[in-house]
Amino acid sequence: IFNTLGGASMNKSDLVNAISSNSDLSRSDAAKALDATVAAITSALAAGDQVSVVGFGSFKTSKRAARSGRNPQTGETIQIAAATLPRFSPGKALKTAVNGS
To answer: Is the pLDDT reported for residue 101 higher than 90?
Structure first.
């Protein structure tokens, strides 16, 4: 999959086009496949599960504790709520491909 924008970021439409051109899927089928993949990963993470795609990477969640912060405009101390955040860890094949090795 090559980015046709010359180094700029790839958006969803570009990704759908790349999936379609590298497979036997139409653009609409590629869009449905991408949407289904994102939905499956999202629902698994929301349930607290980890998603691993061998060679690509792993999606998981991590918890961030509540903490005190500061409002930069007023200098007032505020409380920032605890949160569960999605995380991605790239796999070895992805790291190798990105680094050109």
So the answer is: no
